[in-house]
Amino acid sequence: MIRILLVEDQRVLREALVALLSLEDDIKVVGTTERGDEVPGLVAATDPHVVVLDIGLPDVSGLTVVAQLREGHPAIRVLLLTSLDKPGTVREALTLGVNGFLPKGVSSQELITAIRQIHAGRRVISSELMSDALSVGDNPLTARERQILQLVADGTPPPDIARQLYLAEGTVRNHITRIIGKLAARNVTESVRVAVRQGWI
Description:
Elements: E1 2-7, H1 11-21, E2 27-33, H2 39-46, E3 50-53, H3 62-72, E4 77-82, H4 87-96, E5 100-103, H5 108-119, E6 124-125, H6 127-136, H7 143-153, H8 158-165, H9 169-182, H10 188-198
Parallel strand pairs: 1-2, 1-3, 3-4, 4-5, 5-6
Pfam families: GerE (PF00196), Response_reg (PF00072)
Protein name: Response regulator transcription factor
Domain HTH luxR-type: 134-199
């Protein structure tokens, strides 16, 4: 019996997936949640074989959850089922060592087959997602640069960024200048657009 923990914030989709998977004789949904911060506790309580995980959760990124699972529960298999299929996002997920990555538009049979293959030790990545991920290259931004650019994207001005991150304002502006250069953008606004399009922030 393949034990599944389902992490999906859209209630209708979550309930539909539970109903779908429950029809299979060899699959059992042992837990569900809409929040990423509940995953570690549910993993400890339900001991799943496979976590089916959405990236776009309301509280924390699904990629953050993947990193936590890889650190605390490396034997658990992780299948990302998501609509956030930007190349950079896919590439980061692959770097984190996910076992599967499929768009939400897959058929029910494709999903079930993927779960069985992942449980058996194979890796299942949508060929289209894989091709796009390999075409863009690695994220050129450091963790600090991503953090700063995300704050810029949220509308935070440099003085406030400096206060939040305990940096000098000049340091923040230097980071922004390097970000613009790395992304070959004309200004910080275009840098945000490039990074969002590629899935780098």
